[in-house]
Amino acid sequence: MAQWQRAIVLRLGRFAGIKGPGLFFITPLVENVSSVIDLRTITSTFKAEQTITADTVPVDVDAVLFWRVIDPEKAALEVAAYDQAVGWAAQTALRDVIGRSTLADILSGREKIDAVLKTIIDARTEPWGVRVESVEIRDVVIPGPLQDAMSRQAQAERERQARIILGESETQIASKFMEAARMYETSPTALHLRAMNMLYEGMKDKGSLIIVPSSALETMNLGVMNFASMKTQADASSAATAAHGAGMAPLQATPPVVPSIALDDPAPPPAFPGAGL
Length: 277
Hints:
Blueprint: E1 5-11, E2 14-19, E3 31-38, E4 42-52, E5 58-69, H1 72-77, H2 82-99, H3 103-108, H4 110-125, E6 130-141, H5 144-186, H6 188-203, H7 214-219, H8 230-245
Antiparallel strand pairs: 1-2, 1-3, 4-5, 5-6
Helix pairs in contact: 2-4, 5-6
């Protein structure tokens, strides 16, 4: 007999003892071996199909049970087919636990449910000489429409969190703006430097044009606004280059006279009588 096996010996129908492992002898016609018990850890799979949870959701749950016989005498004498009895006890306990738990508890609290199942099954199998080592839930299957609803709920929750974060960011930005406004209120020089920096950032690209009210310039003590046409300077340079190529005396390119125009000043008078008509 193998190391992990034990033989149940009956003498005239009564329990006579446990034999093994190794070689042993029995009295013919008086003693007989009624069963051989395996003492190794046994793995059994069991499931609960279409079981209703506490929040009325049908689920299919698959689990694995790890158990072993610790008392061969009880396993042979107290229950018929102890391996099948353990399987039915595990399945019944699983249905009982699912019926008392919600879907959220089953999905998020598997370790807790495993511990509860181990306690219940072990209490039922202890009189049979069987000890439950562990119980593990392998899979939980829920209906397809419910999966879609849960997916939409998770998406809505993520969108809500994104909007909350955006609102908190706006609040922080507004707080910083208020702090900057208080600093600019007590330090006009800092406000002027900031305004000049903004104008520089907007005008540093070629060909850009920014129109700013003269009242804003006067507030920043920058004077009136001048407009310069870069295209006029480029045309003057091109004309000088063409004259030099034709053998003519080069002309000194003079920068165009750009008048200073205050936006708040009235229109200039006409150059000659009748010109304004």
